[in-house]
Each structure stands twice: as structure tokens, then as C-alpha cells.
Amino acid sequence: MQNTKNIRNFAIIAHIDHGKSTLADRLIQFCGGLSEREMKDQVLDSMDIERERGITIKAQTVRLNYKDSNSNEYQLNLIDTPGHVDFSYEVNRSLSACEGSILVVDAAQGVEAQTLANVYQAIDLNHEIIPVINKIDLPAAEPDRVCRQIEEVIGLDASDAIKVSAKTGEGIEDIFGALIERLPQPKEDTSETSKALLVDSWYDSYLGVVVLVRVIAGELSKGQKIKMLGTNSSYTIDEVGIFTPKKVSLKAIQAGEIGYIIAGIKNVSDTQVGDTITDFQKPCKDALKGFRPSQPSVFCGLFPTDSGDFEDLRDSIEKLSLNDSSFQYETENSAALGFGFRCGFLGLLHLEIVRERIEREFNIDLITTAPSVIYKIHLTNGDVIELHNPADMPEVTNIKAIEEPWIKATILVPDEYLGAVLKLCEERRGHQVDLTYAGTRAMVVYDLPLNEVVFDFYDRLKSVSSGYASFDWQLEDYKAEKLVKMSVLVNEEPVDALSIIVHADRSFNRGRTMCKKLKDLIPRHQFKIPVQAAIGGKIIARETIPPFRKDVTAKLYGGDVTRKMKLLEKQKKGKKKMREFGQVNIPQEAFISALKFDDE
User: Fold this and answer.
1) How far apart are CA 151 and CA 131, in angstroms?
2) Are the C-beta atoms of 94 and 59 separated by less than 8 Å?
3) Are 332 and 96 in contact (CB under 8 A)?
4) How far apart are CA 440 and CA 274, in angstroms?
5) Is the Cα dihedral 228, 231, 235, 241 positive or negative?
6) Nearest CA to 90 among 44, 33, 131, 135?
7) Alpha carbon distances (Å) from 292 to 90, 188, 211, 513
8) So what CATH class is 484-593?
9) CATH topology agreement for domains 195-279 and 298-371
10) With respect to CATH, is domain 376-481 assigned 3.30.70.240?
11) Which has the closest alpha carbon to 114: 103, 124, 125?
């Protein structure tokens, strides 16, 4: 049995682009986890999308073996976490499997909104936190100013913060000393039976489900029969091992260690994140606390372009949800689009990533409906229902009140862009809660309706602040507002996927903007296409897409004008008939582009 005294489990947390993945690269390189030939930049970002976008989406785990100057050997289990607000659930799970965190802060940019959000998650879990000031090789680096900022804004003692450059490798060795001295060893659980926390799982087409576990007590060994307490299913372990970051098989993993198990699990629903894994013969009495379930804030429909792909889509969504437990789904049927799924996401980037992963990894073409948030509808008979899809809104006569979700948004922005940021928040129906300063940067706290934030608030915020503002939010409460359902009719046919719920005072502007955008986004046809926005039976805006027009009089030469008029009349009748039976094809990009706000 290994002594847990020499084990350290830690996560790397930071705002986006502050250098988490590059720091993980240097730590792996320093411990010889990979040879020079095998090393590449952001080695833990294994998905194509992560490498293309330069962001971490999935938390990855690695075991490093480190020997100090006294030849004591230590086992360091590192988890590299995402920085974006849409993947905060991934961060929370990773932190729950560790005892400490390395907080990485950019020496030039300083403390940002997600720095605060992630460090508060770590503090809530009683983590020991080691501040690391990264990118000290940059000409604009001000490590001493950033240390003061950490103390003022977060309230952490940064007097012994480690100053490093993950790019050049400067100061990396100091981190190992701090990990060993400052981080606690895993708590020893004296129970005699095996007990492990299911941290993550993913589907491998050759091996079935691969499960990432943190062993709390006892050990998990090859050939052992295990039981999942949450789902009451049992399996025999075929393989057990660790990531270095290469997959390495072992005979067993023991208390305090993080590793993987493969047990021929075919049923995706048997592996629930946060479940307790224990020995089948001697199960533990109490389940581990697990993780708080994630709350999706954005919903949209995913439908296959070809209705014959529905079963393939179901399969791919099941496998993907195994790898991303914050993604939720249920089947849905639409008159226009056929069978598909109503899916819940943590934000719009999360939605984009899931859609892209399904299209790439499973080769399925998708149609995405307009994203919407959850509304609470109070009916006149006293019932309260949750509305995920604006197309399902009850009759107006049956509705007493509609409540929408509001969030508390924290925005950090340099002083010169403050005016533009305040104007943007006011435009989105925001109420200012607080405004404080940390050096030359303002920290603004706003109450905002989630409906106004979900489409392109983040893009607009980056635009008005030249990319310097950072943003974090959490769900606060539901408030009753004057909301109406706005439908869009193309060629006098309602398009379910473009129905949205808007504030009554802004409905005319939104309707006009949407019709103008659709006029440019929908390609011209052989017939005239009216595009209308309506509230109930009232049309509030209209644009017309002109038809392609063939010159039917080109072959005429001279003669009476009535000949020309006859041909034009005949063409007009043909266009009218065509409009009655013609199908209007709306391209996929029109669905999302039409919903983005411009400054109205």
C-alpha cells in the first residue's frame, strides 16, 4: 500500500489565455512525461477544436513523477482545466478531485473576471492556492503590480507568488518546491473497502466507456468486481491505469491517486459523473457527496438535415453527453423539421462546440433552432410551467404573467472603455449594482436579463472594449416582465425555429431588424417572398425579397404594346402560382445570424 504522504493532487486554474495549457506543457516536460520528440504545444488539448480555437474545452489529467534534491520521490497528479465561463462545470468537477490549485495570472493583463470566478470555486472547496504570475518575459509584464492586484481584488496573500514564464521555462522548478511544501497530502480514509469518485468518462469505439476516477479509500485493481452506487450496476475491471499523459496500464491504483478504469461498459447511462464506485463484495455504506448538478441556461433544438439520420444523431448525442455531463437533452418533434432533440447548454460557446463536435466526430449535418432561455409562465388557473421553446407558448388569454431569468454579471474593464460598457449594459435592460476600482481598471456589477445576454453580448462587449473587458456571470433570480412571443413568417408560413420571446417595448425594433437581416440572408427565388414579423395576429414589420426576373419581352420586335402587356401578365400569373406552391429554402447560417442584436 502506497503512502499518501508523497502524493499531491492539484488543478491549474486561470482566465482564458493566461497560459494554463502552456504551463502544463512545461511541467510535463520538466518531469520527462514525454520525450522531446513527442512534445508539442498545448499537448493536453487533444481535440481538433481545442487546437484550432486555442481554448481548453475538456479538463485533462496527467501523473508526473518528481524527485527533489534529497532524492525523495513524489507523485503529482495535475488537472489542466478550461478558462471559459461556459465550461465552469468542468472546472468545478476537476477541483473536487484535488486538494490544491495553482492560480495562473498573466503578468501583463492581471486579474480578470474568470480569474475571480475560478479562484472562488477553489476557495469554496477549501483548496490551498499557489499564485503563479506567468508571462514575465513579455515587455508589458508588471509582476509586482499584479501581485498587489491579487491581494486587493481576491484577498489572497501574494507575497510568495511564483514568477514564471511558461513559454521559456523560467522559474518552473520553483513551482515543484511550492507544490510539495504548500499543498496538503490527500486525506486518508481508514475504511477497509474500496471507494472512488467517478470524475469523468468518455466513449472509446474500441474499449467502450473509459472512466476517470479519484480513489478515496482502498484500491481499484485489475479483475476486481465493482459496483456503481448511483445506478446499482456492477462490472469487472478489465484494465486500470494512469495518464502520463500517455495511457499506462498498472495492476492497481490506490487511495489518493487519480487514474482510469475500463470495465467493458457498453451502457452509457451507467456512468454518472459524481457517482461512487465501490467493491461489489464489500460495498461502502455511504456514497460520496459527488458534484452539484449543472443548470443549463440556454436551450435550442438540434435536428438532422436528413430525417433518416435521427437514430445516428441519438447515438452520437448519447456518447457526447457521456463526455460532457453539463450537456442535457430530450427528444422533440417539430412540424417543420421532424424529429430531433431539445438540448440544454451552459452558454452559446458551449452550444457551438457541441454542434461542431457532433458534425465532426459523428459526421451528421445539423439544423440548429434559435437558442432560448427558460421562462416561467404563470397561467390563469394557478399553474406554473417552464417554457424551453418559444414555439410551445400557450395562448395569451391563458397567461397571467411571464417571468424571465436574470443574472448577476461581473465585468472588469480598463477605465477608458467604461462608458461604452455601461451604455451596452443599459441597452440590454441592465440595472447597475456596483462600480469599484482596482488600480486603473473598473469592476462593474450589473443585473441583466439572460435573454439579452445569451446571443451576442460577449461579442459586443469585446468589440466596444477593444478586447480588454472580461466577463463572468451567475444566475440570480426570476422576475416578471412584459414579454411577448414574436413569430417570423416567410412566404406567409410561420418558421418555428425563428420564434423568439422579446420585451414588448423592444418588439418593433427587433421585428424590423430581424426582417431586414432575413431579407439579406435568404437567397432570392423565382417568386417574390414576403418576410414578416408578427405578435399574435398583428404584423409589426415586413420586408420583401424581390424575385429573379426573366426578360420575357426580349424576343419582341416592334408591333402593338398589347403583345408586351400580354407576356408580362402571363409571367405575373406564373409567379403568383409559383408563390403558392414554391418552397423557400432558408440557409442554416440565417437562423443564428438573424438573432444577433445590432445596436438598435
Assistant:
1) 10
2) yes
3) no
4) 42
5) negative
6) 44
7) 12, 24, 19, 40
8) alpha beta
9) no
10) yes
11) 103
∠ CA 107-112-116 to the nearest 5 degrees? 115
Q: What is the rounded average pLDDT of the residues 468-478?
A: 79
For residues 455-468, b (16+ Cβ closer than 10 Å) or e, as one string?
bbbbebbeebbeeb
Single out the residue of 164, 103, 174, 93 nearest to residue 135, CA to CA.
Answer: 164
- pLDDT higher at 42 or 122: 122
Evaluate whether 212 touches 325 at the Cβ level (below 8 Å).
no
Exposed e or buried b per residue across 122-156, where buried means at least 16 C-beta atoms within 10 angstroms of its C-beta: beebebebbbbbbbbeeeebbbeebbebbeebbeb
How, if at all, do strands 225-228 and 276-279 pair? antiparallel
What value, to the nearest 5°, has the Cα angle with vertex 100 and ends 152 and 295?
A: 85
Q: Is 392 helix (H, G, I), strand (E, B) or coil?
A: helix
Per-domain residue ranges of the chain:
4-182, 195-279, 298-371, 376-481, 484-593
Of residues 360 and 558, the one with the higher pLDDT is: 360
Q: What is the tens place of the pLDDT at every residue in 261-286?
A: 888 877 666 777 777 888 888 777 77
Q: Let me know: does 378 contact 384? Beta carbons within 8 Å.
A: yes
Q: Are 390 and 299 in contact (CB under 8 A)?
A: no
State how far the Cα of 26 lies from the Cα of 169, in Å rounded to an integer. Answer: 6
**Nearest alpha-carbon partner for 301 in 360, 371, 241, 361:** 371
Separation CA 95–CA 214 (nearest Å): 11
Residue pair 63/244 in contact by the 8 Å Cβ criterion = yes
Is residue 1 predicted with pLDDT exceeding 50? no
Q: What digits encode the pLDDT tens for the residues 117-137?
A: 778 888 888 888 888 888 888
| Three cell numbers, residue 562 | 398589347
Q: Could you tell me which residue, 290 or 380, shows the higher pLDDT?
A: 380
Q: Is the pLDDT of residue 600 over 50?
A: no
Q: Please, are residues 369 and 301 in contact by the beta-carbon 8 Å criterion?
A: yes
One-letter amino acid identity for 27? L
Please tell me which residue, 58 or 327, carries the higher pLDDT value: 327
The average pLDDT across 485-499 equals 82
Instruction: Let me know: does 468 contact 413? Beta carbons within 8 Å.
Output: yes
CATH code of domain 4-182: 3.40.50.300
pLDDT of res. 23:
84
CATH class of 195-279: mainly beta
Query: pLDDT band for position 35 (50/70/90)?
Result: low
CATH topology of domain 298-371: Alpha-Beta Plaits (3.30.70)
Q: Are 161 and 132 in contact (CB under 8 A)?
A: yes
